[in-house]
Amino acid sequence: MLILTCFFKFLGRNKRNVQDKVDEGVDNVVVGCIVTFVVGLLGGFIAKKLGMPAPFMTGSMLAVALFSIVFAQAMMPSTLKTIAQVISGAYIGQQISKQDIFYLPKIGKPILFLMALFTVNMFLMGWIFHVFFDMDLITAWLSCMPGGIMDVSLISIDMGAKSEIVAAMQLIRLVGMLLILPYWIMLIMRRFGHEQLKSGQRQQKKTAVKKNWNEPINTVKNDTLILFIATLGGGLGVVSGIPVGALIFSLFFSGALKIVKNTSQINGKVRYTAQILAGSIIGSSFSRSSLTQLHSLIIPAIILLCSYLVINVLFAVVIYKRGVFDLQSALFASSPAGATDISLIAGELGGDMSKIVAIQISRTVYTIVILPTIIRFFL
């Protein structure tokens, strides 16, 4: 009896020890996630102060990556990507308006032409990177997708690519385009579009500013409704099993809500939270070994950037010569940077905002919905 009593006490103590270790492990994960998120948040604020594009995405990614490389303590469960996808889809969907839908049939051929150029470029550049720079195919193709950092990075996580390489390539592309674009467009305008009337550009700029002033003000009720509808769509996307389904369905649900109810864009802080989550997830995947790989991306990134500039001028000149767009609007419309960033720059420098936004949104939706499916088909 004494032996049995001691045995059962030993089992009970072991059970408590196991439970204590489990609880301790859970606590460590929770603390690690909170610390990682705080690091990402600080990185976002620093990037915003420095004027970096998409600061809360790029800043959090860089800060968490540095934290992970130095301390090897960064952790952020990749399952949280669903939350980021839903918020991102809600945000993109709110950029769709009835006017954009009205313009789509009229500019259908230019959109198809541009999407074909982007698709051919993605596969061609991806194959070059795979053959000459030793990237696996899915990472190479996703690195060449003409989408936003956050959206493509989330897709890369979902599709099992090397998300740190994809994010780095997308970051270089975005930063490069936003830095070069104003000077590039001025150069092309001097070469091909010197006869374009500046008075018309100024009028377009005034109209764009006036439209922004008339937009409804965000409210808690508005944001809650958008996020609720987007979450329903995201949940349906997760259940469907479609690649990046949460992002795709939340985008469609949010866009439908925008058209039916004319809701206003969600508060930027909500978007920033999603950017920090996505940036932290990607940043936590960096390690000291992955740091040695980044220097090998400089040449591929420059090649990719040059290929997009070629597409930009090719599309713009063809569409301009056919009289579909003015040259400046065509250049802005075919620039593969963030739709919001391009719209802001175009509002400052001039251009037909309705056409620019319609094509930029079409590019974003095409990148998120169609291209991942095409890539999976070829893989």
From TrEMBL:
Keyword Membrane set for record: yes
Residue stretches spanning the membrane: 25-47, 53-72, 111-132, 171-189, 225-252, 297-320
Superkingdom of source: Bacteria
InterPro entries found in the cross-reference section: AbrB_dup (IPR017516), AbrB_fam (IPR007820)
Record's keyword terms, sorted: Membrane, Transmembrane, Transmembrane helix
Pfam families in the cross-refs: AbrB
Keyword flag Glycosyltransferase: no
NCBIfam families listed in its UniProt record: Gneg_AbrB_dup
Name this protein carries in UniProt: AbrB family transcriptional regulator
Species per Swiss-Prot/TrEMBL record: Enterococcus camelliae
